[in-house]
Amino acid sequence: MIISNPGASESITDGLALVGPSRLQQNIYNSSLRSTEFHSERNLKQHSVVTTGQKLFSCKVCQKGYKHESTLKCHMRVHADIKPYECKFCGKAFPTKSALKTHVLIHTDEKPFTCDICGKRFTRNGNLKTHMRTHSGEKPYSCLACGKSFTGKSNLKTHERVHTGEKPYKCEFCGRYFSIKCNLKQHTKTHEPK
């Protein structure tokens, strides 16, 4: 960290952690990267985020890091199950405006992210990035139990259920559990009237 007394941590609000000094130690804060002075600790921290890409704010629940306190506060809604943004098409609620915006693309069939190699389109940039690994052959996510590798984190998570036996998806009609969501969807069709 750029500020003196690195590694100290202080609480901002419940569930939020600010990485930095526990108290102010000098009136002028110096950047170790440049000969730049700042008159507030907050300005120095913002400068450090821009110059180093550091994520100064971390979630105490899941340890995910953020560059801005406001983004972390938004993230905390996920853990508190606060979902103030509702989809006008289906009524599903979301913790952030951006999550709702991404969800709405499902209803409008908009897919703004396109693969330059094969032309496949995606609603999310992250899905495009994962897809690009199918072309490059990169599989950065490996199962600790068996060593099998995957292009995406969610694929690994689904695979790990083979080892754990976890079945988080329950049929509302018969109570049967499934390890994969698409298997539940397929099963649910057996309950539909013919």
TrEMBL record:
One of its GO terms (cellular component) is chromatin. The keyword Hydrolase does not apply. Its main location: nucleus. Keywords: DNA-binding, Metal-binding, Nucleus, Repeat, Zinc, Zinc-finger. The keyword Cytoplasm does not apply. Residues 57-84, 85-112, 113-140, 141-168, 169-194 form the C2H2-type domain. It comes from the Eukaryota. It is found in: Nucleus. GO terms for molecular function: DNA-binding transcription factor activity, RNA polymerase II-specific; RNA polymerase II cis-regulatory region sequence-specific DNA binding; zinc ion binding. GO terms for biological process: embryonic morphogenesis. Belongs to the krueppel C2H2-type zinc-finger protein family. PANTHER family: TRANSCRIPTIONAL REPRESSOR PROTEIN YY, ZINC FINGER PROTEIN 143. This is Zinc finger protein 112. It comes from Araneus ventricosus. The gene is ZNF112_114.
